[in-house]
């Protein structure tokens, strides 16, 4: 029987070590970071989190997503799911282990697409934790879910490219030492063509790259920048992955990155469910504990069932990535379902907490603000639904069955 939902003993040991490090080292060290009455100086904050990174390296809990020959833990995507979910029990957990977005996805991209010289200059500093990066694709003038519409354009001028355009929601741009920038290089190709874009490696800061502002979101200004690009000159050697491969490179990056988000969202959903049950067991109202009331039990039951589905979907999609199989439909399904489940589970937890949940005395209010972003990050709900439907119809046309579009499972 090939189906096995247990981890190998060595991977179970890694999960135990990650959980212990998060609970016993990271959480005590960062407690109070978000408390306005306990604001640390910038220097103290930086020393604390970089100190945690050094401890993670010493414990062998560094770069769980990267091959061992590149200084990582060499975990597959199934094993990575356990690390990401444990790390995300606290906001800074993934960053401490150096497996946070967008750097994690950029590391995978550079490992697969970069030349040896580019790996030396850009990948190695990311792996060491000495630099950070960003991925500049989304634009305000066109639908971010359709990169074939990108208007940022690059024109060849001798051995250089002159780039002009407008980007926004470029996460981490203000902290980044470089960007992977997607621009249109083939103006004669028709709209919708997938070979019109090229990826460029851009050192930041430099003339022509203008960081206009951090976009204020419903959870504050947290590093999503608007960038205006004006006559930015980039050498031909800074092309990443070959001319015309920008779309392919972007899709290669986004598939596993979407699933990594799901792994972290599962952790947040589980935290919310834990809080919901704890509140229900300790809050007395109208003659009994909340946990004894059927209406509250239904909220708990619905959340437990959804979380179970989330975990199964992520593990199955991760197993397909590890096997080198086509994982696009499964990752789209997981991304859509987990993002929506996160919103529903956190919302239920707030409801069970009543006014306390709506306040900022618990983390639920901030969790809910961040959760709403999940439904359009790395592809809006509707785009994933459209792709899932297209692949389901295609599967039926090809085989007379939709089985291949519902996981291809032996059921």
From TrEMBL:
GO cellular component, one term: cytoplasm
Domain annotation Acyl-CoA oxidase/dehydrogenase middle: ranges: 134-229
Acyl-CoA dehydrogenase/oxidase N-terminal domain residues: 9-129
Names of required cofactors: FAD
MF annotations from Gene Ontology: acyl-CoA dehydrogenase activity; flavin adenine dinucleotide binding
Keyword Oxidoreductase: yes
All residue ranges annotated as the Acyl-CoA dehydrogenase/oxidase C-terminal domain in the record: 244-391
Pfam families in UniProt: Acyl-CoA_dh_1, Acyl-CoA_dh_M, Acyl-CoA_dh_N
One annotated GO biological process: fatty acid beta-oxidation using acyl-CoA dehydrogenase
Keyword Flavoprotein annotated: yes
Keywords carried by this UniProt record: FAD, Flavoprotein, Oxidoreductase
SUPFAM superfamilies reported in the protein's UniProt record: Acyl-CoA dehydrogenase C-terminal domain-like, Acyl-CoA dehydrogenase NM domain-like
InterPro entries for this protein: Acyl-CoA_dehydrogenase, Acyl-CoA_Oxase/DH_mid-dom, Acyl-CoA_Oxase/DH_mid-dom_sf, AcylCo_DH-like_C, AcylCo_DH/oxidase_C, AcylCoA_DH/ox_N, AcylCoA_DH/ox_N_sf, AcylCoA_DH/oxidase_NM_dom_sf
Sequence intervals crossing the membrane: none
Record-stated family: Belongs to the acyl-CoA dehydrogenase family.
Assembly description: Homodimer.
The name this protein goes by in its record: Acyl-CoA dehydrogenase
Organism: Planomonospora sphaerica
